[in-house]
Each structure stands twice: as structure tokens, then as C-alpha cells.
Amino acid sequence: MSAGMLLFWALLITVVVMLFRTLDRASVRPSVPEVTRPEQLLGERLARGEIDEEEYRRRLSALRGGGT
Fold first, then answer.
1. How far apart are CA 8 and CA 3, in angstroms?
2. Rounded to whole angstroms, what are the CA distances from 13 to 3, 7, 10?
């Protein structure tokens, strides 16, 4: 009898905690992703080594309207 009562309360507490967590997650709104500027993306590509410095400067100049 006492083992059944202990199991009942453990199950009840688990259900309440799970319900609380689910409702708490639903109330949190997802954050709006930060808009990344093209210059930032270009800088990140340079930092990762995807492009070299010459290409970085050429593309940055093109982005800023400084020619071809």
C-alpha cells in the first residue's frame, strides 16, 4: 500500500513538473535573429580563411560602391 502511494505521488509530481516546463517554454517567445550586415559576413569569411585579403578588400570596395 505504501509503495503504491509513493509511486502515485512521484508520478503526480513528475506530471506537474513536466506540465510546468512545457507551459514555461510556450510563454517564451523566440528571439528575432540579429541581422548580419554584408560587411560583417565578409569579415567572418576572411577570418575563417575562405577568402584572402585581396578578395576581401575588392569585395568590400564593391559593397561600399567604390568601383568594380
1. 9
2. 15, 10, 5
Task: Kindly report, residue by residue over 5-46, the tens digit of the pLDDT.
Answer: 999 999 999 999 999 988 877 666 666 667 678 999 999 999
How many other C-beta atoms can be found within 10 angstroms of the C-beta atom of residue 42?
Answer: 19
On whether the pTM is more than 0.90, the answer is no
HSE-up of 6 (CA within 13 Å, CB side)?
Answer: 3
Cβ contacts of residue 43 below 8 Å, gap of 6+?
Answer: 56
The rounded distance, in Å, linking the Cα atoms of 62 and 39 is 11
Where helices occur in the chain by DSSP H, the ranges are 2-27, 38-48, 53-63
- Is the CB of residue 38 less than 8 Å from the CB of residue 61? no
> 10: which 3 cell numbers?
512521484
